[in-house]
Amino acid sequence: IPADLRVHLGETVAAVPPRLFGGFVEHMGRCVYQGIYEPGHPSADTEGFRQDVLELVRELGVTVARYPGGNFVSGYRWEDGVGPREQRPVRLDAAWHSTETNQVGLHEFAGWAQRAGVEVMQAVNLGTRGILEAGDLLEYSNHPGGTALSERRRANGADEPFGITLWCLGNEMDGPWQIGHKSADEYGRLAAETARYMRFLDHRVELVVAGSSNMEMPTFGEWERTVLRHTAELADHISVHAYYEESDGDVASFLASGAGLDRYLDTVAGIIDEVLAELGLDRKIGISVDEWNVWYQRDWNENHKDAVLSGDWPQAPRLIEDEYNVTDAVVVGSLLISLLRHSDRVSMANLAQLVNVIAPIRCEPDAAAWRQTTFFPFALTSARGRGAVLGSDLTVGSAPTARYGDVELVDAVSTVADDGSVSVFVVNRAVTDEAALSIEFTGGELVLADAQTLTAPTGGDRFTTNTRNEQPVSPVALSGIRTETGEGATRLAVTLPPVSW
Ligand code: AHR
C-alpha cells in the first residue's frame, strides 16, 4: 500500500493537552482492591499500595486519574471512605454486585495519586445523591479549615486541602443501567445546579458534565444538546465514552475504530458549537473522553453480566479482565492518533481502566505486575506525543468497512515537543499488506533518532497476547528506513508491517 505523508514543521495546529494521557481507577473488580492496593503483598508499602503496580503506572505516563467511578459512583457515599479504616462501613455496591469494604477512599487515593504523579479527577454521585453531597465533598477536599467539613478532613490526617480542581458531575446518566438514571432534562438541571453550588464554594473548579455513554445510544446528540443548554454557562468539558471491540470476525471495522472515534468527536464538537452559538456564549467547552479503550463488551454482556449481577456479593471479584492482543494494541495506538489529532477540541482523555479491569497493567497476588500489549502504545505516545500537533497531509488508499464505510488504510499524526524533537505516530490498518510509507518533513532538516513498531512478534501473529508468564509483545526497532536530507527538507522511506502501530 503506497502512502505519502507530508509533515509541515513550521505549522503547529494545536497544543497537546497533557491531560490527554489520563487513566481511570474505579472501585470495580480488582482495579483498586488486589490492583493498586493489596496490603500484605510483598511489594506493598506501609499504606498497602503495590509498588510494582505504581512503578508501571509511572512508566505508563499517566497524567490524571478519574476516580472512583464509573457506574460505582452512582451509589457511592464518599463519607464511607474517610476516617479511621476500622470504623468504615462495609456496603453493597449495586453497580457491580460486589461488597465494598471502603478501605480505600479519598485520602488514600489522593496520597497514591501524589506518589504516582497524577492529578485526581474526582467524580461526584449524581445518581442517588445530589447538590449538597457534591458540595460537601468539595468543601471537605478543598477548604483550608475552620468549618466542620474541612476540620473533619484535618482530623482525618490531611492538614492541607487536597486542592482537587477537576470534577465529573455524575457518570453515564443517559444509560438505563446507571443507578439513578435520568432524562437529559432531569440530569441537565441537576448538573447545572450542582455546578453552580460547587462554583460558589470554590471558583477554581473545572467541571465535566456527562455526555452520552456511546455514540449508538438512541438519545445521542439530543442528550448533548439538552444537557449543554442547561449547563453551557457553567461546564468546562462534556464527556465522551468510547469502547471498541472486534466482533463477528470483522477485523477491518475494528482496525478502523479510530475513524469511528474521529466521527464521534467531530459530531460532539459540532453540537458544542451549535449550542454555544444558539445561546450566544463566547466560551470554550472541551471534550473529555473520560472513558475509552478496547473492551470485549459483547462477551461481558452475553456471557457474564447476568450471572454477576444476580450472584453473590464478592469482594473484588474478577470482572472484565480482558487479555489484550497485538490487534488490540494497534487499535489503542490508532485511537491515540485520533485523540492527538483532535487536540484542539479534546481537553482530556482517560484510558479505562488502569489496572486489571480492561487495563494496560495486570497483576496477581502471586505474580509481579506485567504490561499488557496495550501498555506500549499508550506509554510511547505519552512519552513522545507532547508539545503541539503539526500540520500534515496524508495520501493513501481506502478500504471498505462494514461499520464506517471507506476508511484510509494508513493513519498518522505528528507532534513537535518543546525541545524541537518531532514524532510521527502511524498505524497500518491493513490485515495482510505492508504499507510503503514515504514521509517528507518540509520546513526543516531532521535527523532520525529512533523508530519503533508494535506488531505481531516473530513466531506469533496478530492474536498474540502478553500473560503473567510470558510477554512476547513489545515495541521493536523498525529497521530498513531510508533517509535523505537536503534543501531544507528531510525524506524518509519506511515499510510498515500489516496490523502495526
Ligand atoms: O469502565 C467500565 C464501565 O464502563 C464504567 O463503570 C462505566 O462508566 C462504563 O459503562
UniProtKB/TrEMBL annotation:
Enzyme Commission (EC) number: 3.2.1.55
Similarity comment: Belongs to the glycosyl hydrolase 51 family.
Catalytically driven reaction(s): Hydrolysis of terminal non-reducing alpha-L-arabinofuranoside residues in alpha-L-arabinosides
Coiled-coil zones: none
Superkingdom of the organism of origin: Bacteria
Keyword Lipoprotein: no
Classification via InterPro entries: Alpha-L-AF_C, ASD1_cat, GH, Glyco_hydro_b
Domain Alpha-L-arabinofuranosidase C-terminal, first and last residues per copy: 290-500
Record keywords, A-Z: Carbohydrate metabolism, Glycosidase, Hydrolase
Protein name per its UniProtKB record: non-reducing end alpha-L-arabinofuranosidase
Keyword Hydrolase in record: yes
Assembly, per entry: Homohexamer; trimer of dimers.
Transmembrane segments: none
